[in-house]
Amino acid sequence: MAVKVAAMPEPDATAFSADAILPSPAATARLAERMATRLAPGDTLLLDGPIGAGKTHFARALIQHLQSRHGRAEDVPSPTYTLVQIYEAGALEIWHCDLYRLGHPDELAELGLEEAYERALCLIEWPDRLGAAVPPDALRLTFAPVADRPEARRIAVSSPVCWAWVETLLHD
Ligand SMILES: Nc1ncnc2c1ncn2[C@@H]1O[C@H](COP(=O)(O)OP(=O)(O)O)[C@@H](O)[C@H]1O
Ligand SMILES: [Mg+2]
Q: N or C: which end of the chain has fewer CB within 10 A?
């Protein structure tokens, strides 16, 4: 994968951003699976990008990989209408959110996402709906189509804090 790593300017010396081409759906799933085992309760991934960019594909691969390690195999439908689907993988709780249809900001409080940030692994599609209410150490993954390559996506990862190990995975 072609990778360009850009150091962010001071004072955010620990921040980073990197990007890569994911040539196929399988490559996206593989990245999700490799990231899955490094993630922990309290981690939040913001899955950005337009409709059809691959956000749910990534989340599904990640959730199913973690569940398979604990002998579970569930369907992972898009939480478009439920807004949130909660999964278990051993002791780990995984929240898969799609906030596209989030209405009034009060709905956010009803979802209980603020509490989930503390104790669960949260995968959030359409994170722009959160406004500023985003965990400060979240990792943003932005998926984008690639011209004339329907099976490829560009992924850009960024965070105000260092997620150096993710960068390592993008290099492979
Ligand atoms: N490299 C790729 N990575 C992820 N999905 C891809 C890729 N190439 C094609 N696709 C396809 O794009 C679609 C992405 O759908 P989905 O994950 O539901 O998008 P989103 O949740 O971003 O709206 C799937 O049909 C998937 O097979
Ligand atoms: Mg989706």
A: C
Q: How many whole angstroms from 108 Cα to the centroid of ligand 1?
A: 26
User: Quick one: three-class SS letters along the chain?
Assistant: CCCEEEECCCCCCCCEEEEEEECCHHHHHHHHHHHHCCCCCCCEEEEECCCCCCHHHHHHHHHHHHHHCCCCCCCCCCCCCCCEEEEEECCEEEEEEECCCCCCCHHHHHHCHHHHHHHCEEEEECHHHHCCCCCCCCEEEEEEECCCCCCCEEEEEEECCCCHHHHHHHHC
Query: pLDDT tens, 96-106?
Result: 999 999 987 78
The pTM (predicted TM-score) of the whole model is 0.92
| CATH 3.55.40.10 holds for 4-8+26-102+110-171 | no
What are 1-20's pLDDT values in tens digits? 555 555 554 555 568 899 99
